[in-house]
Every structure is written in structure tokens, then in C-alpha cells.
Amino acid sequence: MKKETFIFDIHEIEQTALYFNKLKETCRVFTFTGPLGAGKTTLIQALLRASGVRELIISPTFTYVNIYKNEVDQKFYHFDLYRLTNLQEFIDLGFEEYLYQPESWAFIEWPELVFPLLEREVCRVTLNYADELSREITIEVIP
What we know:
By secondary structure, the chain is α/β, with parallel strands linked by helices. The protein has one domain (2-142): Rossmann fold (3-Layer(aba) Sandwich), CATH 3.40.50.300. The protein is built from three helices and seven strands; from the N terminus they run E-H-E-H-E-E-H-E-E-E. It has helices spanning 13-23, 40-50, 87-92, and strands at residues 2-9, 29-33, 65-69, 75-80, 104-109, 122-131, 134-142. Helix 1 (13-23) crosses helix 2.
């Protein structure tokens, strides 16, 4: 497992997303944890734009998942699991099938309940406030 930590200014979100875009070669699933307002959704939106998604990117807070495609027909599943209460709910909704699909990536906010399903090709991202305009990011890559 590879682990690194760095700090970025929120005005550098697009450059930070480009760094994450390179990690897609190793990771199929990206999890994002951190306090409310730390920038999980904002970072995922920037990462989707860096991946070639051109449509409006919104938070799936009430739908649990939004599906996006880029110009080369790659799929991106953006999950927000804040309102789910257990792993079985995730499975019952059929979301387990979205993980590890060919030519697709999953970005999961509030992922703690699905960690048992994520054993390989995972990039665990933890965001914390460094100060008002900066965030500390810790990245753990599980090949």
C-alpha cells in the first residue's frame, strides 16, 4: 500500500484533479472521506471534468448515484452514500454491480459502509481542513 499526504489550496483544485486523473491507471474505485464542507464533491467534480465529462456535474445526495460518460464512452459513477445506513442497502439497490466495471470508475463519498467490498484497485482519499482556503489530502493506494 502506498500512502502520501499533501496540502493544496482550494484555488488549485483543477491541478489537484489532474494528479488524481493519473491515479486512474491504478485505481478503479476512489473513496472520499472527510468532514462536511471539506471539498469531497468539489474535488470529484474537478476529477470528472479532468476525465473528459462535459455535462453538468451535480451531487447525488438524494439519488445516491449519478452516472456520467466522457467523449470516449468511459463511465463514471459518482456515489454519495451519506444517507445509506448499511452495506446490505447498497447491495439491495444493485450498486455493487457498478464497482469494477470495464472502462469505468467509481467515486464514492461517505464510503465507510462499503469498505468490505473494496479490496483492490482502490484509492482512499481523506480530506481535512488545513485552514480556510487549504485542504490536507491523504491518499492510500491499494493495488
